[in-house]
């Protein structure tokens, strides 16, 4: 994972808690097109909708076992792709995925790795987030898909 900054260091810590390493994970933005405004500006709903096909195609090609949406905008984008009401995602447990129609585990209530300050809106200490990610790692191990190309897959 390129870049040595606080967000990427936190993300490495969270991935390690699952037992994964960055080279085993596909990382992408949930909104895969340009948005108006600055980097930290919200993404308007119409832009999320216009960008939905790009994320949907990325998911179709990758066929992931699980998707972790990091932050509110990523969660909203995931809801658009899977046609899930955002209220369903908000009501879900952080460490228990919504299993989509294609079998993908959707973890949509995770904090963005920059949100480790409890004083920040929605922020949670990194140590608490690590516990969430350990539980996600357990789910991944319990629900591992058979290797592609195996006789029973």
Structural class: mainly alpha
Rg over CA atoms: 15 Å
pLDDT under 50 segments (min length 5)? 146-153
CATH topology title? Uracil-DNA Glycosylase, subunit E
In this structure, how is the largest beta sheet organized? 3 strands, mixed
Going across the major beta sheet, what is the strand order? 1-3-2
Describe what you observe in this structure.
With 153 residues, this protein is mainly alpha-helical. It has one domain (6-142): Uracil-DNA Glycosylase, subunit E, CATH 3.40.470. The protein contains five helices and three strands. Strands 1-3-2 form a three-stranded mixed sheet, sandwiched between helices. Strand 2 and strand 3 (105-110) form a beta hairpin. Helix 1 runs parallel beside helix 5 and helix 2 packs across helix 3 (72-82). It is globular. It starts with 5 loop residues before the first helix and ends in an 11-residue tail after the last helix.
Layout: helices, strands, pairs:
Blueprint: H1 6-18, H2 45-62, E1 66-70, H3 72-82, H4 86-91, E2 98-99, E3 105-110, H5 126-142
Parallel strand pairs: 1-3
Antiparallel strand pairs: 2-3
């Amino acid at each position: 994972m390129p870049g040595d900054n606080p967000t990427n260091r936190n993300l490495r810590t969270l991935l390690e808690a699952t037992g994964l390493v960055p080279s085993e994970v596909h990382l992408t933005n949930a909104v895969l097109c340009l948005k108006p405004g600055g980097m930290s500006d919200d993404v308007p709903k119409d832009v999320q909708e216009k960008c939905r096909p790009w994320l949907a195609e990325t998911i179709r090609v990758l066929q992931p076992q699980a998707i972790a949406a990091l932050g509110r905008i990523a969660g909203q984008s995931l809801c658009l792709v899977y046609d899930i009401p955002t209220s369903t995602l908000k009501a879900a447990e952080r460490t228990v995925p919504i299993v989509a129609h294609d079998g993908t585990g959707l973890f949509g209530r995770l904090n963005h790795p920059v949100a480790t300050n409890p004083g920040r809106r929605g922020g949670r200490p990194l140590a608490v987030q690590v516990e969430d990610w350990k539980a996600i790692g357990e789910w991944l191990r319990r629900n591992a898909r058979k290797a592609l190309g195996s006789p029973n897959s």
